[in-house]
């Protein structure tokens, strides 16, 4: 990958900004297997030459890669790529790269499983503890969604807002933070968003109404089951078919 031709000529900037750019490129190359597991990254002088940065920037970038679990720098062996199970998928740069190079959609499938588990639990908690003002916000959000059935982009954004209201009302701040982080990165992928039809929107709307009704009724068990069904079912409807012959995927630009 030609760093200069992709990003244009490097201009003097703060080393932190340059370091962020170097890290993003190296993460992409590791996740895409341009640098396979147990292979050595280029040497410091080689990276300095390629990216037009100082040794200080390169060393800081390598430290960041180590913190993300992608590499280990060892005297005498250089900086070598580690096995994927140790990579920090909650790191936004790593997660974005994984989604970008996820040929068989395994990461997105896993993301849906995590999201369904956490959100079903949070929906149940919300049904047990929701206050009247929060219940009214949820009902009002249904009206917003109903007005946007013919606008897929706007509907998707307000769909996220509907789920956010439930998570906030649950009081589970950690669960909310995890879902907010991973879902925001997934939504950057066109393969995650799909191209929902009007029928898909209407089914989604009907399920949202059922979820709101179960929360209002205080049915924690019922809404937990429905939330899981809703999230998994929505993904299955929009999940693109995986072609084994797929070879080219987007790279960092």
TrEMBL record:
Entry keywords, A to Z: DNA-binding, Transcription, Transcription regulation
Gene3D superfamilies given in the database record: GntR ligand-binding domain-like, Winged helix-like DNA-binding domain superfamily/Winged helix DNA-binding domain
One Pfam family it belongs to: GntR
Protein species of origin: Cryptosporangium phraense
Molecular function in Gene Ontology: DNA binding; DNA-binding transcription factor activity
PANTHER family on file: GNTR FAMILY REGULATORY PROTEIN, TRANSCRIPTIONAL REGULATOR, GNTR FAMILY
Domain of life: Bacteria
Domain HTH gntR-type as annotated: residue spans: 16-84
Listed name of the protein: FadR family transcriptional regulator
InterPro entries linked to this entry: GntR_C, TF_FadR/GntR_C, Tscrpt_reg_HTH_GntR, WH-like_DNA-bd_sf, WH_DNA-bd_sf
């Amino acid at each position: 990958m030609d760093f200069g031709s992709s990003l244009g000529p490097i201009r003097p900037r703060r080393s932190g900004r340059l370091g962020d750019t170097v890290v993003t490129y190296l993460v992409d190359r590791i996740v895409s297997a341009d640098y396979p597991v147990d292979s050595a990254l280029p040497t410091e002088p080689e990276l300095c030459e390629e990216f037009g940065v100082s040794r200080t920037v390169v060393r800081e970038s390598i430290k960041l890669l180590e913190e993300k679990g992608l590499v280990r720098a060892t005297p005498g062996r250089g900086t070598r790529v580690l096995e994927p199970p140790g990579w920090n998928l909650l790191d936004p740069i790593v997660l974005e790269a994984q989604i970008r190079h996820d040929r068989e959609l395994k990461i997105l499938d896993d993301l849906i499983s995590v999201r369904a588990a956490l959100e079903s639990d949070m929906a149940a908690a919300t049904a047990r503890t929701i206050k009247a003002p929060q219940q009214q916000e949820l009902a009002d959000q249904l009206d917003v969604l109903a007005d946007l059935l013919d606008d897929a982009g706007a509907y998707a954004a307000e769909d996220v807002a509907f789920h956010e209201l439930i998570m906030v009302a649950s009081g589970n701040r950690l669960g909310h933070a995890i879902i907010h982080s991973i879902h925001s990165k997934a939504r950057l992928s066109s393969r995650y968003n799909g191209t929902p039809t009007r029928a898909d929107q209407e089914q989604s709307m009907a399920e949202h109404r059922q979820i709101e009704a179960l929360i209002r009724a205080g049915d924690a068990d019922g809404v937990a089951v429905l939330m899981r069904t809703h999230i998994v079912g929505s993904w299955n409807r929009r999940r693109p078919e995986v072609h084994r012959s797929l070879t080219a995927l987007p790279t960092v630009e």
